[in-house]
Amino acid sequence: MNSALLKSRLGYGCYALGGAYGKKLSRAEAVQLIRLAYDLGIRYFDTAPLYHTEEILGEALARHRDQVTIATKVGAYPGAERLSREHITASCHASLRRLGTDCLDLYLVHYDDDATAVDEVLETLEKLQDQGKIRAYGLGHLPASRTAAYLEQGNPRLVMAEMHCAMPGQYQKLRSLQQKYSFGIIAFSVTGRGLLAGEASQPADAGLRSIDPLFRRNKLASGLRIAAKLQEMARDSGATPAQIAIAWVLAQPGVAGALTGPADRRHLEENCAALHLKLDPALEKELTALVYREAEAFRQQITREIASILASPARGPDLVYCLEHGVEMELFPRDEGARLLTEILRGHNLARCQRQLQSLLHSAKSPK
Length: 368
Prior knowledge:
Layout: H1 2-6, E1 10-13, H2 27-39, E2 44-46, H3 54-61, E3 69-74, H4 85-99, E4 104-109, H5 118-130, E5 134-139, H6 144-153, E6 158-162, H7 169-177, E7 184-188, H8 217-237, H9 241-250, E8 255-260, H10 265-272, H11 281-310, H12 316-328, H13 334-345, H14 350-365
Helix pairs in contact: 2-3, 3-4, 4-5, 8-9, 8-11, 11-12, 11-14, 12-13, 12-14
C-alpha cells in the first residue's frame, strides 16, 4: 500500500519553516516544531533542497530515524542544472549528507524539464533504488501529460498535488490517471494556505500570499464561500474549519496522505487533531457538492475574467492570476507560462508580458 510507505496519513511539510509565508523560524524553533509534530503522531516529513530545511529536519529526527518516513526532492530549478543523471545522483548524495541518513524513504521529482527524456530520469532513479540510496520515488509539480509518461514508463509510488476544498482540479486529473496506474496522491496546501481556516480573507502583505492567485478576484470570492460553509459545519460539529478541510481531503478516494506545515505551534496541534475526525457522511456529501459546484462555476467564467483583466493595464499580481488559472485551464502552454511567470516575478517589462498573454489568449479562443 502506498499509504503504508508514509507511516502516517498526515505529514509535516517544511516549506513554511524557511519563511515563505512571512516569519522565518530560528533553527532551534524549527527543530522544536518538527519534534512536536512527531509527538502529535506525525511520522511522515517532507522537505526539499529549495526549502533550505534538510539539515534542520535531519537534526530534529535523528533520534527517531527508524520510526519516520523522510521525503525530499530533486528538480530542474530555475537557474539550476537539468535533470541529468549527474545532477540527480549528485543531488541525492547531497540530500543524504544534509539529512544525516543513508537512505531516502521517498525521492520526488520536484520540477521536471522536458529537455531530459523520461526514461533517462527513471533509469537514474531506479539505479539509486537498486543501490539502496532511495526506497521509492514519486512526482510533484508536473503537468498531467508528463505525469502520465512517468507512470506509463516507470513506477512512481506517489504523486503530489495541490488539493483543498477551493482547488480540486489537480486531484481530478490525477484521479482519472488512477483508473489505469497504481499510485497514491499526496495532497498539499490542504487548508488553502489559511484561507479555509478562516484566517486570511485578504492577501497578506508578507510572503507568497501577496501574489498568490488563490487570494485574488473571483478565486478568492469562491474560496470565501467555501470557507463560510466550513465555518457553518464547524459550529455544528465542534471541530474547527481547518480540521474539517483536512478531514475532507483525507476522505477522498485515492489520497494516500496529506501535508500540513504550519509554523505556529497552536495551528499544528489543531491540524493534527484532524487525524481523528470522521465527517458526518451527509455533511461530507454536502460539502463535496459545493466544492465541485464552485469549481465548475469558476471554470466556466475564467476565460472571460482573464480577458477582462488583460483588456486594461494590469499589475504583476493580476498577471500572475491570469497565468496560474490560464495554465490550469490549459488556455496557455505550460512552458510559455513558466517563462512569463519568471519575467513577471522579476518585474521585467510587465506591459510586454501582458501583450504576450493577450496573444496567447487570442490563440486559445480561436477555432482550431
